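Hey all, sorry for the wall of text incoming. These are the two entities for the joint prediction.
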Amino acid sequence: MNDKYIVSPAPHFHDKTTTKNVMWNVVLALTPALVFAVYYWGFKSLLLTLLGAVSAMVTEALIQKFRKVPITISDGSAFLTGMLLAYNINAGAPWWIPVLGAAFAIAVGKQVFGGLGNNPVNPALLGRAFLLASWPTIMTSGWVKPKSGSLSGITDLDAIALNLQSLSPKAYDLVTGATPLKVAQTLRDSSFVSSIITNTDQGVDLANRIFTNLTDLSAIKNLFWGNIGGCIGEVSVFALLLGAAYLLYKNIIEWRIPLYYIGTVFVLSFFLAPLKGSGFSPLLPFFHIFSGGLILGAFFMATDYTTTPITKNGRIIFAIGCGILTMVIRLYGGYPEGVSYSILFMNVLTPLIDKLTMPKAFGWVKK
Amino acid sequence: MRLKTFPGGVHPPDEKKYSASVPIVDIPIPQKVTIHLSQHIGSPSKPIVSVGDEVLTGQKIAESTGFVSLNQHSSISGKVTAIGNFANATGSNSMAIQITGDGLDKWIELTDEPNFIDLPLEEMKKRIGEAGICGMGGAGFPTLVKLSPPDDKPIDTVILNGVECEPYLTSDHRLMLEKTAEIVLGMKLIMKILGAQKGMIGIEANKPDAIAKMQEITKNEPAIKVVPLQLRYPQGAEKQLIYAATKRKVPAGGLPMAVGVVVQNVATAFAIYEAIRYQKPLVQRVITVTGSPVVSPKNIMARIGTPLSELIEFCGGTSEEVGKVICGGPMMGFALPSLEATIGKGSGGLVLLNKKAASLNEEGNCLRCARCVDVCPMNLVPCMIVSAIKYNNLDLAVKSGLNDCIKCGACAYVCPAQIRLVQYIDTGKIRYAETKQAKK
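and here's what came out:
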């Protein structure tokens, strides 16, 4: 009798999902956003993305070689981290920004903790936080105008005021030089509003008109297609949703986190934003959902496996927490955008959330 | 109508196409059989024959050694040629009685009770115990124990398990098609013994012919209902089946009788019918021999103790190189090192996988993706149990549900990092038992 058969514990069947195809599928799902970025800003956005990805893979390989552990860059997780990091910088950034950011993300965000599956916070977001703290000017200004669009998403400046440029150079600079969330934040600043025009009453009126145009249907359309200023991978809601639909269909991400995250932002922007007094618009919730990095964050970062809760209820708590923090930072914080910090913050709370939401076994009875 | 099911679970390819339409055939009586003394849960049986003794088919050769134990019978007539360690259907060796046949297949005397349905309950139970019947779905729990609930646990519902949710296997399916009336009679006997008013037959929706046939034969039986179930693994796990059919939750750590239910496999019901009517011991069963390397997959009525190699030969041998031999189904069955082993009372299938299907992927780091959490039918957090075991924290493992795990393998099936969760959990269960033993 031959003893050549493989002996292993059950189950002897496995579905086709592997770490590798999960990671590369996420990369694939992120590609439409890159296509849009190349369309709006040219091939430099592709170059920056590749630099980020390659830097992440090289860093991972070097550290793994140094740690004398198997080199696992083919699993795609380092590529994905580098890609996501690059998606969080603007198309006008110098080439070394994604290189340094991705290297930091992998080295300090992932490998020091033992590599894949062991990092407490999302490495790409940690890399972004590192860049934002070290080179704030590069990270928050110098936005590149998208092809045939404007930074703030307001395309028809005359709709705000006849000849805005000569009426108020300050207001003109704002709507042509800042991203939508920055415009919204600036408009909430009463000292700014009172200084856009010599006559204060007119200033308030002008600010209201700018806000109305910032959140009207044509501006929301620009947000949806991504025809605005912003980071490479975050602008096109359409492209990101395309990728997200693919991941949901492939059962790679789960619906709870994006739904509760975006839902919380929707509800809070409906009630909280008008309270902060920058005028009301029926489309305001959509403005908050489509602008900044929310869609990218909710579908691609807050769904990161390692740094989010494993329990079903935990994921809901996590997502609601992200939504609240995002809106609090956007409306009350010093930064115009709060997605990345809110996710980082909730990442840190993840072990606690898991602990508090451990499910009871089927048929559990109180003893 | 939405089909009934349970929360969680996975949907592996069912692969029943190889053998689902092949009627049950008898395999020629084997020359030698080995009857294992431990084919069931509980204490091993004690041999009552010695080497050299002549035995008849159906003759008792080992007897039960307690309440949770079983009688064993010779499945052929011949001479006892050895009592010792032989390869068993779970991949290891254990004590067994080897019988070399005389080729005559001389049976013990069987009866045919015309009014078997009206036999006294005690006589029925005695016959079941005599016949050495255990659960034939795989776990092998002695049937008599299940049919003797304590007085404070009244049973109102009997569920027949015809789910057969393991991929590849079709032995229960064929039995339901070919022995429909006998299975239903077996079920009525079980209901009578337990005093249960309701009977349900759970069948997965991928067996519409079996569902139709069961419905046809039970249409004048208001107490018996056929329950079609959604195609989902592990639909046939006892607690999941009970929940799907009755919405009752068996308490964690408890038995189905706690919610007034007893579940029996369809093959067991058939064996019970034969035991009570003919006083026929459990010496044969249907086993599906299947998988892509098998030349002509079959559902075989085989004697207990038949060597697996003879089953493969009977199916025309193999057409490609075999990578893995599984006794049972691919989700919970045992991989065997060779074809030396013989079939036991719980062996419903012999599945061969080719080299490609058998290849193992390397285990990676846990990503905390929580796919295992989403599919666990017991609502546990498998990855947490496993990491607790890896770091030798048995307390945390138990708190995370180590002892509630039914080892269905749904978690390991979906794990993208290819972590063999069931193996770790098994290790944990053994270690836990050891520490408990040490504390005593």
